[in-house]
Structures are given as structure tokens and as C-alpha cells.
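Limitations
The C-alpha cells in this dataset are predictions for the assembled complex, not deposited experimental models. Users should treat interface geometry with appropriate caution, especially where small molecules or nucleic acid strands are included. An illustrative entry is reproduced here so readers can see what is and is not provided.
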Amino acid sequence: NAGVTQTPKFQVLKTGQSMTLQCAQDMNHNSMYWYRQDPGMGLRLIYYSASEGTTDKGEVPNGYNVSRLNKREFSLRLESAAPSQTSVYFCASSPRQGSFQETQYFGPGTRLLVL
Amino acid sequence: AQSVTQPDIHITVSEGASLELRCNYSYGATPYLFWYVQSPGQGLQLLLKYFSGDTLVQGIKGFEAEFKRSQSSFNLRKPSVHWSDAAEYFCAVGAPTGNQFYFGTGTSLTVIP
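Predicted assembly:
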């Protein structure tokens, strides 16, 4: 099993460009999450999906959209990138529906630089 | 509002020395408590978690953590640190009900020979 995979590993964008970060898990997990990690701020939740077909905002959703394409895949879209969105983005998944009370399994991250 | 605090931004220890990383939370009820480790350039991996029961929790890689309700703390410990333990450590709290989950800001651990 690959666990949680993320593509791309690294991306450079110009301000105003759009892009989609892809995430897939092969563990048959129900819940999936997107975080951003910034120096000195830990990880902050952007969006999560408690089950296929549902998505909810986290702590810092502004400037992002998400799609839970199916049970395996959860994508994060930046419609008009801004320098403030320069960050490392992590996708995670957990087994049960809508549960923040259990272990999350993380992907390797996507480093995004917005110029 | 709930929060989680890791007071130490960076800690340096000698290999073989003991380690304690601090974590304090602010929450009305006892939350679910986690410690994750992040090696350079990697994603996060769960070290251990506490939901209820025995307040001393054993994790992977020889780590343990103790939940102290009176101090709202969940400190991570290891008796003897190895060079491979150099990493960033994150404490996290999840609400016992509802969809709230927060990471601390992390503690960076350097291990010197």
C-alpha cells in the first residue's frame, strides 16, 4: 500500500495563477483532510471531508476550494494564487467518517511557492 | 476557545540524554491528545495518543507521554535520545465531540553527539 500520496511534490506559481493539488489514499479511509504548514504556526486545517460527497471548512479556508472526487481522492484548488499561500500543504486521511478523534495518516507534502 | 501550546520552539539534547517536550492544552473537557513526529522533508507520523484510561501512554520508538488533568498537560518523554530522534514534534488536540482539531506550533529537536 502506498498510503497517502500527493502530487506534485513541488510547484512554483505566479500570483493569480490557478492550480490543483491532488491527494489520494489507498487505505479505504472515510475522512480526508488538507492542512497547510507555515514556519512557527504548526499545521492549520484548511478543509476536510468527513465522507465521500461531503466537505467542510477548517480554520483557514479562504482562497481555497476542495473536491472529494470519490472515496480515494481529495483535491485542493487555488483559483487565484497569492504569495500568502506559499506554504507546505499536507493531505491526511483517517478511517472513520467525520472523526477527529483518531489517528490521521499523512502524505509527504507539496511545497508551493507563489511569486 | 480551545488551544494547544508547545512552549519550547527548539530543544537541543545530547545523545543518550533524557528528553521531555512540553504540551499544554486549553479545553473545557478532556480532549483527545496526540503526539506526531515530522522528520525533515517528510509528512507527520503518529507517536502516541491518549483518549482515556491509564494516564501514562506508551508509543512507538521508545516514547511515552503522561496526561495530567490538573495541569492540562500531555508531555512527551524519552529516557535516552538517539541521533535519529532529531525531528519536529507536534502536539495535537481533538475535541471529544464535534469537528475541532488543532496542532501546536511544534518543537524542533536537535541531538548532538
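Some entries come with short summary sentences. For this one: The two ends of chain A are 36 Å apart (CA to CA).
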